Amino acid sequence: MAESQTPIDPREHQTALRQLSLMRDQRSNLDKQLKVAAQRNDKLVQALETARGDILRLKQAISQDLEAPMNQAQVLRVNRPVRSGASLTGDARAVAETQASLDVAMGGRTVRVPVSPVLDIDDVRVGMTVLLTETMGACAAIGYRPTGEIATVREFLDEDRLVLGTGSNTQTVALRSGRLEGSALRVGDAVSFDSVSGVALDVVPKTEAEELVLEEIPTTSYADVGGLGTQIEQIRDAVELPFLHPELYREHELSAPKGILLYGPPGNGKTLIAKAVAKSLADRVEETAGASRNLRGYFLNIKGPELLDKFVGETERQIRAIFSRAREKASAGNPVVIFFDEMESLFRTRGAGKSSDVETTIVPQLLAEIDGVESLNNVIVIGATNREDMIDPAVLRPGRLDVKVRIDRPDRAGTAQIFGLYVREDLPLDAGVLAEHDGDRAAAVRAMIEAVVEEIFRRDDERRYLDAVLADGRRIPTYWNDFLSGALIRNIVDRAKKLAIKTYLQEGVKGISGEHLVRSARDEFDQQRDAASRADVEDWLKYLGFSVALSSLERPLTGEDGPEGLSLDPRAKDGAGS
Ligand code: ADP
């Protein structure tokens, strides 16, 4: 069936024709654009090809360079590219730009080498090792040498340089490596040092030994030490007079002691006194210098045996570090006390012990350091020991630790004084005791202390402690007070305070009583008995004038078969125990 022809509207025909010609135009435009794009594309491909060729050639060149055996050198200076002449313009400026270079130490020579484009100059620091190509271009930085000599920082010259102590008496100026830039380096620190290039490479991490050296600003004063009045006076005369009046000493041709040796059984205040010396000196200096100078006493506490045990062969370095730390503090005018606890471990008599290390290297090193203290009048060495017989006599010669003071176990009066330091009137006191003394707290405390002191100093069976059996068979009884110490008194008081708290919580009765103190004393001595050391007893026997060796320590035989004890304690008022 034929479709009926619809006549075309001439106007529509016109419009369609116009659109057709428009589309033709657009198409020819697009064709043109496509042609241009294709041309551009060709150019790009060409450029890429060229670049690829360049890159390949470069890669080849570099890899050839890097394959060759390369020299290593150490960077002494990084010369960044600098533009000279701000007045220059355009191309002239580029010409005036100097190339990045490095000054390096290589085989004992110093050479300036260019920096290869493959190495970013910003990654290079002084002290780093760089690889040099055959053509001597620095092409890679491979970090810092992990090895080196150990040296001690003595002084800071400027941002880039420091003075290092490299031997007992040699010093050298060294460059600071990039590793040490901005690090909190201090005088006395140990660094690894490359003696060929003269660069201080890295901080040698603080050893545990250095951490054994506790540095503090003591707050203990002489008033905190109980019962050692005479000894303290002796120490103050020996230490403070020459310290405060060096001119008088010079005038009278007397040299100030560099130190003192405190000896006697442990726990009786040697450390306390040494701290008090540091604080007192600082106080006195501040008084004389005026409040404007903020001076402090420093206390360097060195534990001899730990220093030796943990760091065989390292001790000398530690000792050097300790003394230079002291020098650093002292140079600002601060008095410094270097305290050697258990000094006999470090200053052992030469030729007596097994440890050749101590005898051959440590003792001479310490002596040299002590002798060197001379130039600084505000460093004082205080040694503490309970075996002064083991200390090398060279240490005790005039001009070294020539003041020897025995710090003994407390006597009755001393014991009462030490108790007085810890049982204070302002503590909660037992109502019964207070009532007995009409509310006079001071009197109540005194009475309680008297009671416990009386108890401790009685020498009867109940207080018999250990028997010292001598090599010749003699049996010498010991009593509580033969083992008394300041530390033990403190323990007794702490125990009594805990008892008082317990009593309060259980019975509602508050306050420390004489009974608490006496009970605590008994418990404390009981507990300490097993820990009593031979050394304590040997010291005690020696003190009493026994020359026969100790064979064993035994608990006293109780009952009728107990031997007749003989007490030789000169301090005991009530004589031999029955
Ligand atoms: P040492 O150095 O003689 O072994 P310390 O001075 O370290 O003994 O004493 C240990 C602790 O015992 C001190 O911190 C203190 O609490 C107490 N102490 C010892 N002796 C006394 C004393 N004479 N006066 C007051 N407290 C003392």
Walk me through the topology:
Layout: H1 10-67, E1 71-79, H2 90-96, E2 101-106, E3 109-114, E4 128-132, E5 138-144, E6 149-156, E7 161-165, E8 171-176, E9 190-194, E10 199-203, H3 208-212, E11 214-216, H4 229-244, H5 246-251, E12 259-263, H6 270-289, E13 298-303, H7 304-310, H8 315-330, E14 336-341, H9 356-372, E15 379-385, E16 403-406, H10 412-422, H11 431-436, H12 441-457, E17 464-470, E18 475-479, H13 486-507, H14 514-529, H15 534-543, E19 550-554
Parallel strand pairs: 8-10, 12-15, 12-16, 13-14, 14-15
Antiparallel strand pairs: 1-2, 1-4, 2-3, 4-5, 6-7, 6-9, 7-8, 9-10, 11-13, 17-18, 17-19
Helix pairs in contact: 4-6, 8-9, 10-12, 10-13, 12-14, 13-14
Bound molecules: adenosine-5'-diphosphate.
The site of adenosine-5'-diphosphate (ADP) has 17 residues, from helix 6, helix 10 and helix 13.
Describe it for me?
The protein has 578 residues and is α+β, with helices and mostly antiparallel strands. The chain has four domains: 64 residues, OB fold (Dihydrolipoamide Acetyltransferase, E2P); 55 residues, OB fold (Dihydrolipoamide Acetyltransferase, E2P); 192 residues, 3-Layer(aba) Sandwich (Rossmann fold); 154 residues, no CATH class. The protein has 15 helices and 19 strands. A hairpin with a 5-residue loop joins strand 4 and strand 5. The longest helix is centred in the first third of the chain and has 58 residues. Adenosine-5'-diphosphate (ADP) binds next to helix 6, helix 10 and helix 13.
